[in-house]
């Protein structure tokens, strides 16, 4: 009988959770950027090792932060911050094992205290993993961790999988071995575009945007998507479009190439920018972006 279970990856914003998830399953399911709060939803990635008969459903979670502090850009957007934290907490509750990522390149801060407090109530086994081992300058490296990993070169991964699987009960596979995420297509596409917002736009702008999928037509040979980038203000819209449309074109082209790689077919991506005034404070939008778990 194989071993199957749910494992939540938690840690402060920017600790390297999404990088770890993508590297573990070898696919781009979760957006990565050098800026905090790139991930705002929990994202599943399924790891299967048929030889060892292990299936682990990893859940990448949004970085847990202190509510109401300077997060989500530098805006004190408390409502959205609370929802981002709730996403992570819901995944924690549903997990059988918790992988707690620690970033040795930065000092422990209020966020880490908050995470430790939350985890002190967790009933599940917790594996403390220090990441970014490939970085030379790790002034906050600690001996108090179970495993040290480097997600860029996939160092320490075997040990991590072994540690997790030692905790897993035997259970039939939940997914086919070549299945790596059960993220619906629209959320997957949103995530790809979101990553490009972080890649192409300056400090505050990606946080002021949300991606909306208008329509998807999908057949054997072609995927046709109409998507909208919603900004809060007219001036942000101008920035997202860029001079002569250069920014929006770059975001569109890069997203299309990644989608073609992911879905293995020709992709037509129509991308438009709209203004949705004050969406970060709009309950209707927030409920849609963060459905109740
Ligand atoms: N050198 C190195 N960089 C890493 C490693 N893991 C993550 N990073 C970098 O750290 C930054 C943050 O990575 P993410 O995976 O987006 O972090 P996260 O924990 O998902 O962040 P949020 O989604 O904002 O909570 C990115 O620039 C990554 O390239 C690692 O093992 N080594
Ligand atoms: Mg992330």
**Residue share in helix:** 25-40%
What general form does the structure show? globular
Q: How many β-strand runs?
A: 9
Mean pLDDT: 92
What is the CATH H-level superfamily of the largest domain? P-loop containing nucleotide triphosphate hydrolases
Helix-strand topology string: EHEEHEHEEHHEEHHEH
List the domain count as a whole number. Answer: 2
Structure in words:
The chain is of the alpha/beta class and 293 residues long. It folds into 2 domains: 3-167, P-loop containing nucleotide triphosphate hydrolases (Rossmann fold); 185-289, K homology (KH) domain (GMP Synthetase, Chain A, domain 3), CATH 3.30.300. The protein is built from 8 helices and 9 strands. Strands 2-3-1-4-5-6 form a 6-stranded mixed sheet, sandwiched between helices. The chain has a 3-stranded mixed sheet with strand order 7-8-9. A hairpin with a 3-residue loop joins β7 and β8 (222-231). α5 (185-200) packs across α7. Magnesium ion (MG) binds next to α1.
């Amino acid at each position: 009988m194989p071993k199957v279970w749910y494992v939540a990856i938690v840690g402060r914003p920017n600790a390297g959770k999404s990088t770890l998830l993508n590297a573990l399953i070898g696919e781009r399911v979760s957006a990565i950027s050098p800026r905090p709060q790139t991930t705002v939803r929990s994202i599943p990635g399924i790891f299967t090792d048929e030889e060892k008969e292990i299936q682990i459903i990893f859940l990448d979670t949004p970085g847990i932060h202190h509510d109401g502090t300077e997060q989500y850009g530098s805006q004190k957007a408390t409502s959205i911050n609370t929802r981002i934290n709730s996403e992570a907490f819901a995944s924690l509750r549903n997990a059988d094992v918790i992988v707690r990522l620690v970033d040795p390149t930065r000092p422990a801060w209020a966020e880490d205290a908050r995470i430790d407090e939350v985890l002190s109530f967790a009933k599940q086994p917790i594996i403390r993993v220090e990441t970014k081992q490939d970085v030379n300058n790790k002034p906050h490296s600690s001996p108090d961790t179970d495993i040290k990993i480097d997600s860029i070169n996939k160092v320490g991964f075997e040990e991590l999988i072994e540690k997790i699987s030692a905790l897993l009960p035997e259970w039939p596979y939940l997914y086919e071995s070549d299945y790596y995420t059960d993220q619906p297509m629209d959320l997957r596409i949103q995530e790809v575009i979101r990553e490009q917002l972080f890649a192409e736009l300056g400090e505050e702008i990606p946080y002021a945007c949300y991606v909306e999928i208008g329509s998807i037509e999908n057949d054997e040979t072609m995927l046709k998507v109409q998507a909208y980038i919603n900004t809060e203000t007219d001036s942000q819209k101008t920035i997202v479009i860029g001079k002569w449309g250069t920014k929006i074109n770059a975001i569109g082209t890069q997203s299309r190439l990644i989608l073609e790689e992911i879905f293995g077919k020709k992709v037509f991506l129509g991308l438009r920018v709209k203004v949705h005034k004050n969406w970060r404070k709009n309950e209707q939008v927030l409920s849609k972006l963060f459905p109740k778990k």
